[in-house]
Amino acid sequence: MNNLEVFKVIVISALVTVALRLLPLFVKIPKNPIMNKFFEALPYSVLALMVFPDIFTSGGTTPYDIVKILIGMGVVAFLSLKRFGLGIIVSVSLVMIFLFDLAKIYL
User: Which chain regions cross the lipid bilayer (predicted)?
Assistant: First the structure.
């Protein structure tokens, strides 16, 4: 593949990604609330599908790492049920994992 073909693939991939992310903003079906909820949840679903497998492959296999992963998932579930925003949920989860890593280093 030459540079032009690589550039075309990158541009097409970017356009498809942006189109899927912007689709819920423009598509509203007023008589079908189930479809509206589907389109509103689509970006979060795609994000979860991209991130979830990496949680298990990057964490490690020691019992400490497995506990760290489970507690991180518990924090995400708890904050989600309490209706916190996505930014706060991600930030708190990252801080929890960082604190666990610090505890592992110093203990």
Answer: 6-26, 38-56, 86-106
